[in-house]
Design brief:
By secondary structure, this protein is an all-alpha fold. The chain has helices at residues 4-21, 46-60, 68-77, 79-111, 115-130, 138-144, 150-164, 168-179, 187-203, 205-214, 221-229, 236-245, 251-268. Helix 5 packs parallel to helix 7 (150-164).
Length: 270
């Protein structure tokens, strides 16, 4: 809990930073809160950083274009607190100008090499926009699910599952769009789709089992490998499908089926 006196000081110093430091291209915003006396694990509490960031965001979101250099600087140069501030400020910007700033946020997402940074950006800047109409952004997000960026892809899927956890029909629509790309899936895309199936199992078991039912007669190695990677729940029916695939003359299908059977036998005995 930040005391009232410190809240007033932090807000006042944030406004002073905007008026005096930013025009001089002095972007080291941590000067605002460095004097704060309390530390958690030797760090300034996140509540303090968020308060400062929210104060800056209220002013910057009105005309964000003039602050892009500042945004880039704190993301790239100011460590964990800089990334928290960036996400907080851009969240406010996106609430006003999400069409204009979608590509800007996307560029930072694609450059991020840390799952925590990606999740922070998604949660603070995009989730509030997408939750208003998730289906409107399905095609965009599927384009962002990159075969060469498993970390980003998994974070996007996690965000979507949060958006759609109580929207079974929308979840099926999203899955169908991903499913349309299974035929020519690369090894990395196979992993991403397997992760999606595992995520579905946590949210909608009925849908999970229906996916395997719909593919019980397939002989496509990509499909069997995706289904095998997605295994997380047991059923006698799924075990039967895998027993049939294990008899396949296709080496990839047989290998995946034997891996799946090993998992299912262990899961079924628990």
């Amino acid at each position: 809990m930040i005391s009232l006196d410190w809240k007033e000081r932090l807000v006042r110093d944030s406004q002073d930073f905007l008026e005096r430091k930013i025009p001089m291209r002095d972007y080291d915003f941590d000067i605002i809160y460095n004097a704060y006396p309390e530390r958690i694990e030797n760090k300034v509490p996140r509540d303090v950083v968020v308060l400062v960031s929210s104060t800056l965001a209220s002013a910057m979101a009105k005309n964000p274009d003039q602050y892009k250099t500042f945004f880039d600087y704190i993301w790239e140069k100011k460590g964990e607190n800089g990334k928290v501030a960036f996400a907080c400020i851009l969240g406010k910007v996106m609430s006003r100008k999400h069409n204009e700033y979608m590509d800007y946020v996307k560029a930072h997402l694609f450059k991020a090499d840390n799952a925590n940074d990606i999740a922070l950006l998604l949660e603070k800047t995009l989730y509030p926009i997408f939750k208003k109409n998730p289906a409107q952004y399905f095609d965009t997000l599927i384009q962002w699910i990159r075969e060469d960026n498993e970390q980003l892809s998994q974070c996007i899927i996690k965000m979507l599952m949060k958006l759609l956890k109580n929207e079974s029909e929308l979840l099926r629509k999203f899955f169908a769009k991903m499913e349309n790309r299974w035929m020519n899936a690369s090894p990395n895309f196979i992993k991403i789709n397997a992760f999606l199936i595992k995520s579905i199992a946590k949210t909608d078991e009925t849908m999970y089992f229906s996916i395997y039912e719909s593919y019980k007669n397939t002989r496509d190695p990509n499909f069997v490998e995706i289904l095998t990677g997605g295994l997380t729940l047991y059923s006698d029916n799924i075990k039967e499908y895998y027993e049939n695939w294990a008899k396949s003359g296709n080496a990839r299908v047989k290998k995946a089926a034997l891996t799946g059977l090993k998992f299912l036998k262990k899961k079924g005995s628990e």
